[in-house]
From TrEMBL:
This is Deoxyribose-phosphate aldolase. PROSITE patterns: PROKAR_LIPOPROTEIN. InterPro entries: DUF6503 (IPR045444). Pfam families: DUF6503. It comes from Algoriphagus aquaeductus.
Amino acid sequence: MKITQFLFLLVIVASAISCKQRTEAEKIVDAAIEAHGGDTYEQVKIDFDFRNIHYTIFKSPTAYEYIREFTDSTGTVRDVLNNTGFTRTVNGVKIDTLTEERIGAFSRSVNSVAYFAFLPYGLNDPAAVKTLVGETEIKGEKYDLIRVTFKAEGGGDHYEDEFLYWFGKEDHLMDYMAYLYFTDGGGVRLREVSGVQEVGGIRFQNYLNYKPADKDTPLDRMQELFEAGSLEKLSEINLENIRVEALPKN
């Protein structure tokens, strides 16, 4: 083999290795996903109740389907959000009169519940941009603090939202998260894990949901305000009646 050919092959190999390298932030998220459920997330159907609404969540590396079912004054409502779009049926009849605005609102609502229930799975979405902020400490525990933003392309309707995640340095578990959002007037929130359920190989977490007095508080101040006891408890995020069904891989 000529020296030029050998050097060319070295460049190709080095380039391939470089492409496969993970940043430190990506490695931390990888470890967190593994600690919370790992490969179990990749082909699974999950059922749970949240605030008197029943959810069925299916995810795979290439497809998803989120269903919520509840009863109101109109009857039995079934919302379905998947790769092809959103549909609503009432008492088994498809509703074709929904405006784009209502479709968007319903879709965001369903997607939000599914997103938070599956965390930290989803943080390796191609649109997610992860940055290691640094090491920090809360209540005597050390954490890796990761900032997540989203690219406009593939980042969904909420791509401008910004998130912070606190992953334990020893156990890689996500004990806290905070986020900045812009819908419905915008604001910031911080969630603290309040309970854990291990079902079907996946770690599901309940949260206490906090808000600051000023909705325009910078996201980066939320830890400081939390530790100072300056945040108001807004609500509790509790998943109930969780069931996990592993699906055969294609």
